[in-house]
Write a structure and sequence with these properties.
This protein is mostly helical. The chain has helices at about 1-70, 70-95, 100-150, 155-160, 170-175, 180-225, 230-270, 275-285, 290-305, 310-335, 345-365, 365-390, 400-420, 425-455. Helix 2 (about 70-95) packs across helix 3 (about 100-150) and helix 3 (about 100-150) packs across helix 6 (about 180-225).
Length: about 450
């Protein structure tokens, strides 16, 4: 019995030795794997830091470029906004058989005739009223100063200590100039500003014209360079952005016209002096979001207080009623929540863009903030939506003919693009084949879009 026991003991010891060796090897492999994982994590963390730093530097550099060339960016944005705003009218005329180029020219001609008619009918009256206000401004200031000084309210009367007693007239300030040199320089400055404004307007109109004609084709060409999985998301983003900008521009234009006309008519019925000028100021400043009505109300109240103090209360009531009707009746019906920017975001955007870029930045702050908000929403919630779509089981429904055709069109577009990338061509034939490839892919994508609209119906 001794030998078997010894044999079993030796075998057991050998097994224990092998087990210990294997355990040690496993521990060493685990430690090596952990060290490799730790090294990979450290490398990833360093990579993330480098990428975040590069992203921050890129954003800062882009902002510096935007600040330096903001006028170019704003001209481009205004031109595209004008194109988006008049796109429904162009589409309506195109449905009646009018070519797109002729449709845009018709819209431009109508706008030009409308502006010329307004200038012909309104400019003489406004010029007369502005000259009257300028010549009577010292008298208005004296009346306003005495009204404040004779007020029974101590707080109101104390404001006069911060104001000068007399107002120097415009004639005196011009008379102080030597030999009319300053006046000639001022006239040249006005002519230069007028020429620059006309040139900028021409650039905006040309940009809107070409973008209306070639914008869809340009978007399709850019969309071809995007991976197929991301095309729907990018196309949806562009569509949402266009809807937001177009709705805002059209709605804001209607609001400016309605507020300007309503204010002018109301002031004229109340026999308020300079009613046309005050209404024009209110209509133009309505384009500035949030603070525009307040900026327009200040000169209206001050001029009325100086010229007809007894009607100041009526003017304040009219301004307040106009704002109530605008916020509760006009804005919900005309704007139709086309922008959807939070009020706090709007105030911050107006403050930031107004301080950096002036009145133009304040006017364009809301649509720019809307674009940034749409972009951030898609960047933040896109991953969650993709996860939800992945987790949802695919519905088992019978595919119709349109669905099958859509799949075939998508496959055709992918096959054409993949074959074009894998084919090696000479310089002479590559351009022609690329044009044919782009045309085939464009037709496939347009067919996919038409079938998608048909499925929605």
């Amino acid at each position: 019995m001794t030998l078997p026991d010894t044999h079993l003991t030796a075998a057991f010891a050998e097994n224990m030795t092998e087990t210990a060796a294997s355990t040690q090897a496993t521990d060493q492999a685990t430690d090596h794997g952990n060290s490799q994982a730790h090294s990979w994590q450290s490398m990833l963390s360093v990579t993330n830091v480098v990428l975040a730093t590069l992203a921050a530097v890129g954003i800062g550099f882009a902002f510096v470029l935007l600040y330096q060339f903001y006028m170019v960016v704003f001209i481009f944005f205004i031109g595209i906004s004008l194109s988006i705003a008049m796109k429904p009218a162009v589409s309506r005329l195109t449905d009646y058989g009018v070519p797109p180029r002729i449709s845009i020219l018709i819209i431009y001609i109508l706008l030009t005739l409308g502006i010329l008619f307004i200038l012909w009918a309104v400019i003489p009256l406004i010029t007369t009223q502005v000259i009257n206000i300028t010549t009577q401004l010292p008298l208005y200031y004296d009346t306003f100063y005495r009204y404040l000084a004779n007020s029974s309210n101590t707080l109101v009367s104390s404001v006069t200590h911060l104001l000068p007693v007399y107002y120097s007239t415009v004639e005196e300030s011009f008379a102080s100039n030597n030999d009319g040199v300053a006046s000639a320089g001022m006239i040249l400055a006005w002519l230069r500003d007028f020429a620059n404004g006309g040139l900028l307007l021409l650039v905006v109109l040309l940009l809107a014209y070409h973008w209306t004609l070639e914008g869809d084709a340009l978007r399709q060409r850019l969309l071809w360079r995007v991976p197929p999985k991301r095309r729907d998301a990018i196309q949806s983003f562009v569509h949402e952005m266009e809807e937001s900008i177009g709705g805002y521009v059209r709605g804001q234009t209607i609001l400016c016209v309605v507020i300007g006309v309503a204010s002018t008519v109301t002031f004229w019925l109340l026999r308020v002096p300079n009613a046309l000028t005050l209404g024009l100021i209110l209509g133009v400043l309505e384009a500035v979001p949030i603070i525009g009505p307040l900026l327009g109300a200040v000169p209206a109240i001050l001029l009325t207080l100086s010229t007809a103090p007894e009607k100041t209360l009526w003017v304040i009531i009219v301004l307040a009623a106009t704002q109530v009707l605008e916020n509760n009746l006009l804005v919900p019906r005309i704007m139709d929540e086309s922008v959807g920017v939070n009020a706090i975001v709007s105030i911050l955007a107006i403050s930031a863009f107004g301080l950096l870029f002036g009145i133009v930045g304040a006017i364009l702050a809301i649509p720019l903030a809307a674009i940034l908000q749409i972009l951030l929403n898609r960047l933040i919630f896109s991953e969650e939506e993709e996860l939800e779509e992945v987790e949802k089981p695919a519905p088992r429904i019978a595919r119709g003919r349109d669905s099958v055709l859509r799949l075939e069109a998508q496959d055709l577009a992918r096959d054409v693009r993949s074959q074009a990338r894998n084919t090696e061509n000479t310089e002479e034939s590559s351009r022609a084949e690329e044009e044919v490839t782009d045309l085939i892919e464009m037709l496939a994508l347009q067919l996919d879009t038409l079938l998608a609209k048909r499925e929605q119906r």
